[in-house]
Structures
1.
Amino acid sequence: MKRFKSGKTAPSDNSTSLPGFKRSPFRLEGRKQLVFTGLGLLFIVVVAFINVPYQILLLLYSIYAILLLMTYLTIWMDGADEMKEPEAVMKKWPSVSIVIPSYNAGHTIFKCLEHIKRIRYKGRLEVIVVDDGSKDGSAEVLAKMKGIRFFPITRNVSKSTAVNFGISRAKGEIIATVDSDTYANADVLERAIPYFEQDKKIGSIVLFINAAHPNNLLQRLQELEYWVSFGFYFKTVDFVDGLHVTPGPMAIYRREVFDTLGGLDETNITEDLEIGLRMRQAGWRIKACHAAVVYTEVPTNLVNLYKQRLRWFRGGIMNILRYNHLFLNPRFGSLGMFTMPMVLTSGLFAAVFTVWTILDWARGAITAVLPAVSNITAFLPVAMRGPPPDPLMVNSVVLVAMIPVIIWCFFLYSGFRIANARPNVSHILPALILLFLYPAFLGITFLAAYASELSGRWYRW
Amino acid sequence: MNPFLKAALLTLVVVALALAMAAQLDAVRASELRNSIDSALFQNQERQVALHFGRVMANDTAAQCAYLTRMRAKQLNDTYPLALKIQDYEKNNLFNSEYENIKTTYFLGVADSYISVFEQQQACRSDEVPLLLVYREKSACPECRAQNQILSGLVAARCPNVRIYALPYDYPLMPLQMLADRYNVSSESRMPVTVIDDKIRLDGLRSEDELVAALVSRGATCGPKQN
C-alpha cells in the first residue's frame, strides 16, 4: 500500500517505531488566507446584522432551512424509502481483514472483539488489532489473545497511522476498519459484502451506526440523532449517489482503494471524511447498507460531546476546503451539486445565524437593563413586569420558522422506522430537546469550528 | 422531474403559503388595533361635538359642563397603552403597509384629545389633570417603555382624575411638532419627557413617587401606594 501524502500535515518529530511510517511536517501555507477570509466574513455578518432587522434574518434562514429539508424530503419520497438490498448471488465470498486500532481502550476493546468473534461469514476472515502505544495494560492482554493478529506500536502516533499499519499487514481482499469502542452485529459482513458484487465501482460500504446502550438523556438524544443522520440522511443521500464520508466507527473497503489511493491521511482529524472525498474524486462510489448495524459508544456528557462535534465540524470545514474543486462540479453528480454545497452551507449558515442570534440577545439584554442604569429606583418596581398576555403578540416569522421543525419531525419518524424502533414515552424529552435546543448547541459548535479554523489554530486530536 | 427542481418548487409553494398565513396574522393585528383606536377616537369626537355645542348653542354653561362630566364618567380606559401595543405589533409584523395609517390616525386622535382637555378646562371647572408622556418613536427607547409601564401600572391606579396621553416627538405630523416645540422637546432632550398639566416638565425616567408628587401639586387626587 502506498503512503498517502497530504498537502497539509501536522507538526511533529518524524521518529516512530514503524519504518516507512513517518509523519510529514505541517506546512503553514493557506493560514493567512484563512484568517483574512474569516475576518472578512465576520465583517459582512456584523454589517448585515446592523442593517437588516433580525426578523428578516430569521425569515431568510428559515427559507434556506425549508429548501434544504424539502430536498431531503423529495428525494425520500422519490424512492429512497424503498431501496432494497442487492440481490447479487455470491459465487465466492471474498477474504476479509478486520483492522482495529486500539489506544487505552481496555474498557471497550474486549467487548468489541467479542462481537467481532460472533460475526458470521462464509469467506476467510482475519482480525488485526494494532495497539497505538496504550498505557492502560490492554496491550499486554491483547498480546496473549488467541484468534487475532496483534501488532503493538511502542509510541502513540495516531489512529490513522495504526489503521494504515494494520492495512499494510492485512491479507484480505476486503478491509473493514472498526473502532475499538464499536460493536458489530453478527450479520454485518453477510449484509454488506454483496454490495461489492453488485457494482465494481463501489469502493466502500458504510453501515448503519447506532448509539451503544444509551443510558442518560444526552445519550438517548444522540441515539435519536444517529437514527436521523446515519439513518435517514445517509439513506436519502445514498439514493442520489451523494455519499461523501465513510464513518469512522466501522466502514468496509475494497483493498484496491488503498492500493491505488494510499492509506488514511495520518494528519487529518477526520480521516474518514478525507478518504471518502478522495475516493469520490477518483471515481469510486460509496454505498450505504442499513441492514448492517453497528453500535458505537457515544459521549456521556456535554463537554465530551462538544469536543467530538468540534473535531467533526473542523475536520469537515478543512476537508471541504481541500476538496473544493468538487464543489458545484457537475462532473461529480449529486456529490458536487448537492452534498458538498449542502454540507458547506448548512454549517456556515448555522454559524452565521448563531452570531446574529447572540447579537440580538445581547442587544435585547442591554436594552432591558438600560432603564436601570438611568434610574434604578424608578425602574425596579416594573423591572419584572412584562406586557399583558396577548395571543396576537407572536412574531409572524415564527409561522415560517416552524415549517422546518415540522418537516424534521417527519425525519425523526423515518429514523425510527429505519432503526425498527417504536417511539415510546422515554423518547419524548430527548426528541423535544433535539428539535428545539440541540440546534442552538450545534450552531455554537459550528461557530467555534469556523472561529478555530479561520483563526489558523493548530489541529489537535 | 428532477428531485432538486421538485424541492425548489415545493419550497416556493410552502413558503408562499406560510407568508400568506403571516400576512393574515398581520391583518388580524392591524384590525384589532384599528378597533381599539376607533373606540378612543369616538370618545374624542363625542367630547368635541359636546364642546362645539357649548360654544355655539348652549345657553346654560352649568348644564353643558354636567353633560361633559357624565361623558367622562362613562369614558373607557386611557388609550396611552396603545402606543406600546402599536410598537410591539409593528415589531412582530412581517408586512407593515397599514401601520403608517394606523399610527397617523392614532397620534392625531391623541393630540386632539389632549388639547381638548384644556379646552374643557377653559369652558368648565374640570378637575382632570392631564399628563403627557413624550417619547422617541423612530428608535429604541427602553426608558420610554419603562416610564409607560410605571404610568399604567402604578400611577393610573392611584390617581383616578389623571388623564395620561403618550405622543412621540419624532413622528412627521405637524400637531406633534407643535407640541414638541411648545415643551422644548428635541433630540437633545433626555427621554422620556413628562409634562404635567402643561406646566411641569420632568426629563428622563421618573419614579412613581416623583410623578405622584408632581401630579398632586397640580391638583390630582392620588391614593396611597398600592402593593
Note: The beta strands of chain B are 129-135, 162-168, 193-196, 200-203.
2.
Amino acid sequence: MSDIGFVRTEMLPEQDPPASEVGIIGWARHNLFSSWFNSILTIASFTAVYFVLAAIVPWILSPTWDGTSLSNCRETLAAAGHGDAHGACWGVIKERWVQLIFGFYPSHLYWRPVAAFVLLGAALAPVLFSDRVPSKMLIFSALYPFIFPWLLWGGTIWMPIAALAGFVIGGLVYKFAAEALSTLLGVILGVAAALVWWMLLAAPVSGALDSILPIGIEAVESRKFGGFMLSVTIGVVAIACSLPIGIVLALGRQSDLLIVKYICVGFIEFIRGVPLITLLFVASTLLNIFMPPGTNFDIILRVLIMVTLFASAYMAEVIRGGLAALPRGQYEGADSLGLNYWQAQRLIIMPQALKISIPGIVSTFIGVFKDTTLVSIIGLLDPLGLSNAIRADANWNGIVWELYGFIALLFFVFCFSMSRYSMYLERKLQTGHR
Amino acid sequence: MSTLTDPPKEQFRLSMLLYDTRYRSGTIQVIAMFGFMLLAAWLINNTLSNLAALGKPIDFGFFSEPAGYDINQRLLEYTSRDSHLRAALMGLLNTLVVAFLGCITATILGVIIGVLRLSSNWLVARLMAVYVELFRNVPVLLWIVFVMAILIETLPAPRAFRGENPEATMSLADSVAVTNRGVYIPEPLFSRSLGDAHLFGESSLRFDVSLDLMAILVVLGLSLFASIKIRQRADRIQEATGDRPATWHVRTAVVVVPMAILLAVLGFYLGYPELKGFNFKGGTHLRNSLIALWLALSLYTAAFIAEIVRAGIMAISKGQTEAAEALGLRSNKIMSLVVLPQALRVIIPPLISNYLNLTKNSSLAIAVGYMDITGTLGGITMNQTGRELECVLLLMLVYLAISLTISGIMNWYNEAVKLKER
C-alpha cells in the first residue's frame, strides 16, 4: 500500500522566472537577439546609429550661438578645441531665424501674422475638435477667411467687408429668386449677382466707403512676404479655397450629367498629370497673358491661384473617395425621404463624406504645405529661397547644414504633428459606425 | 368598343426646361457647356490679344533654331549647335532616365524598409519608423538640395586623387572614382565593335543605336526564352512524375555561355576612368546632379512605398501566415510565397500613384541643374526664345503624356495580377 516513497504535502513556493527571461535581458533576448539574423541586424543597427550620432551630436553641440560670421564661428570652435573647425555655426540661426520665419515683413507688424495664425487655430478648433468646442464658434470660422487676408495684407477694412457682402448679396438673391422662381434659376441668379458685385461694384463701393470712413491698418506689399509665413499662407489659403472647389469637382465627377462630368474629369486628370512646377511656371509667366490686357496680379496672388487649382484637383479625389466610401443605403435613404439632390447632399451625404475624408484632407494639406517650397524655384523667398539669400551675405557665405537643418526641422515639426493629428482622427472615426 | 382614350398629350412648355426633371438635366448641361465655352473663349481671346500686343504670335518655328547651350549629362550625341527640338529630346530622355532609375531603387528600398518595419526586432522596426517619418515630413526639394550639398561638400575633389600619397583613392580595385564632380564608373567598350546604326539621318531626332547593345539584348532575350522553356519542361515532368529534374546548371549555362561567347567575339573590355590633369577622363561620368536627384527621389519615395508595403502586408489576415507556418514554411518563404503575392494586390494601385509622383517630382531637377525636360524646354529654351506659352504648354503636355502612359501601363498590369473572381 505504502510503496510510494515520498509525497509532497505542501506546495512549493513560487519561483522567479529564470533571469534570462525577464527584465532587460529577457526583453533583449526576445526583441533584439531572437535569432542569428536578428542579432546581426541589431548589431549592424547599433553600429550605424552609433556612427551617425558620433558624427552629428558633437557637431550640434557647438558653442557658437553668439557667432557673428562664419569666420568668427571658426575662431570660436578652434578656441574651444573642436578639431578641424568641425561644428555647427549656430550664430546664423540666432541672427536670421526671425527672417526665416517672417521674411521681409515689417518687424513692427509681426503681431499681425502671429495673430492671424493664432486666430486660425481658433477658427479651425470647432472643425478639428468638434466634440470639445461649442459649435457656435463656427460663425467665427465662417468669418475668418475675410479676417485672415486683411490681417496679413492690411489696408482698408472695407475691402474684406465688400468681399463678404458679395456672399450676402448672392445668398439673398438666391433666397428670393428660389422662392419666386425656381431653385435652379435662384442658383444662377445668385451666382450672377455675386459675380457682378465682385467684378464691378465691390472696388468702387469699398473705395467710396474708405474715403468717407477711413478705417484700416497699414498695408503690406506681397513682395515683403517670405519665409515660413509665406509657406503657411500659401498652404492655408490653397487648402481653404480648394475645399469648396474640390467638393464641386467631386460632385461633378460623380454626377450623371455627362458634359459636367467630362469637364470635371478633364480638369482633375490634367492637373494631377502635370507637376506643380509647371503650374508655377504658368503663374510666373502665363497667367497675366490669360487675363484681359492691362491686368497685373502680383506674383503671390498668381501663385496662390495656381496652387489652389492644384490643390483642388487633389482635394476632389479625396472627397470622391469619401463619397464612394459611404454605403449605398445612405443615398437611397435620402431618396426615399423625398429629399432633392441638394438637400440630400447638404443634410445626409456631405456631412458624412467630409467626416470620412478629413484624414485625406489633412494629408493633402501636408502635401501642399511641403510643395510650397517649390515657389523658391520661381524666385519667391520661402525658407529655401531665403537660405540662398542668406548665403549671399558675405558673413554667412559657406553656411549650408545649419540653414537646411533648421528649415527641415520647422517643416518636420509642422508636418509630423499634422500627420499625428490625422492618425488620431482616423482612430476616432474608426470607432463609429460601419 | 374600347372607350380608352389616349392620356392627354402633354404640351411642351418652355418652363418645363426648368421644372421638369426630365428636361432639367439637359438645361443644366447646356448652361454648363455654354459657360465653359464662354470661359475658354474669353481666355483664348485674352491670350491672343495679349500675344498680339507683345508681338509674338504662337509659333513653334523656334524649335528648328540652334539651341546654343550645352547639356552636360545626356544619353545621345548633342552639341550646342543642335536645335531646340533636339535639346528638348535630350531633356525628355534625361527625365525618363531619372524616373526609371528612381522608380527601381525606390521600390527596392521601399519594400525592404516596409518589411523591416514589421520586423520583430525592436530596434530595427523603430529605426525604420524614424526613417519613414523623417523622409515623409520634410519637403522633397529640401532633400534634393540637401543630398546635392552632401555630395559637393563632403566628397573629395579630383585633385585629391593626385600625387604620390593622394588624400583620396579610387574604390573597387581602382575602377570607380567618387569625386565631388560626380562618380566615374568603367564603361563597356568593344574592340571589334559592330558600329552604330544611324536612324533618322541628320534630323533633330537622329538616334544612334549601338549594334553591340542590340546584339547583346537579342542574345540575352533568346537565352532567357530558352531558360524559361527548360523550366516549363521541368514543370511538366514534375506534374507527370512527381520528380523535378535538376535544371539550374543547364539554365545557368544557357544564359551565361552564349553571352560569354558573344562578348569574346565582340572583344569586350572595360574602359576605366583615369586621372588626366585636373579631372578624370574615360569611363562613364555620372554627374552629381543626376546622382543627387536620383538618390533624393528614391529615398523620399521609398518612405511612402514602405508605408504602402506595410499596409499591404498588414491587410493580409494573420490566418494566412499561420497556415503557412503550419505547412512548415520558413519565414522568408512565407513572405515570398504566401504574404507578398496577396499583398501585391493591395499594394499596386497606390504604388502606381507613387511612381507618378516620383516622375512628376523629377521636374525638381531644375534645382540642382540636372538638364531634364523642365531644365531644357521649360528652362533655358524658354528663357532664350521668350516663347513662354509654347514652351510651358508643351512641357505640360509632355508630362501629361508620360503620366497617362505610366498609369495606363500600370493599370494594365494591375488588371493582370488582380484576383480573378468567378
Note: Chain A is about 70% helix and 0% strand.
